[in-house]
Amino acid sequence: MNQNEFNRRAFMTLMGASAAAGAFGLPARAQESLKLWAPGIAKVGAQDWSDMEAQSGIGINSIAKSARADESIQKMVVGDGNALYDAMTDNGGGMEDALASQGAIADLDITKIPNWQNILPRYLDGGDAADTIRHDGKVYAVPYISNADSLAFNHGVIGEELTSWEALFDSQFRGRAAMQNDFGPTLTNTAIYLKQSGKGSIDNPSDMTEDEVRQTCEFLIDLKKKGHFRTFWDGVQNGADLLSSEEVLVSSCWEVIQIFAARKNGQDIRYGTMKEGHQTWNNVVMLTRGGKERGMEDAFYALANVYLSPWFGARTLAGLGFTPQMTGVGEYVDAHPDDFDADTKAIMAERLARKQERSLVAGNSWQNVFPTNMRAYQDWWAKVQAA
């Protein structure tokens, strides 16, 4: 993992841009329930939050949240997020630093989370992911999912295993390739490929210089002008539909998109291990300053305890393909044969093995929502979109 330190200048640039955005109102909710600002991927079990409520023993009022860093900053730092939310999720290794440095979230007492004993060793002091949940040495966040994003490909049509990002940019897939419509993961994964293949002079794909951003975007612009990309996808459903319909045969995407696409028509759509590396990331849950002031700490710790339970880890792996953040998942699955049949167990084991392979690739780069040269990223990404 190559984690970048929180960059104040980039944060201030983003905050200034988002301050002009309008706040949105929310209907009144029961005060006894934890008001959780989170996306649907933070939930397992039932379609609603009832299984999560049953496991945690608390009421949960979930408010839908996007993955946009500027939305989080606008609501929590310059907006009314602390009045609206008791807890929230976001990207670890960046947002916990940004929000803690502005006093928007509260530091945590891990002794109040019994399942902290299950947390993966990489999050303990000295671990390679320790800084993704800490700010100034204090724990501010609890991880609940992670992954190394890769390439989904239609093995049934292509007929071979793809192990390099080269395939995504190969002319044989012109018009049937796709990438995410987000400069963060798209530029990072492209830069990883350019660096490792020797086709670009790039030092750190997670935090590029202005010239490195230019190189990466000019590479994509050239391909786009040649009609290489079918589209740049937005959202899980769009990404999955493109693959399942065979409009695209190769796509950089989240693993959940590959899973949904393969399920739709029973196609052999796979998720590869790229020899050059991948963008790695985690998502974390945090207690807001407002939640602490309103006395919602115990409710937060109850939910955090569920997120570090094998019950949650097994289900997020089986259903959405995310990496469990705790030990003991295999033992839990074996102890609950009625919940996981033989086919499901085999799929889970295969996913974990592939995740382990991806996590060990030397070229992996940690996601960075606050790159030093944020303005260059934004300006050049606009040129990619306009090409």
If you had to describe this structure to a student in words, what would you say it looks like?
The chain has helices at about 10-20, 50-55, 70-80, 80-85, 95-100, 155-160, 165-170, 185-195, 210-225, 235-245, 255-265, 290-295, 295-305, 310-320, 330-335, 340-360, 375-385, and strands at about 35, 60-65, 85-90, 135, 140, 140-155, 175-180, 230-235, 250-255, 270, 280-285, 365. With about 375 residues, the chain is of the alpha/beta class. Helix 1 (about 10-20) packs across helix 3, helix 2 crosses helix 13 (about 295-305) and helix 14 (about 310-320) packs across helix 15. It is globular and about 55 Å long. Residues about 15-30 have low confidence and may be disordered.
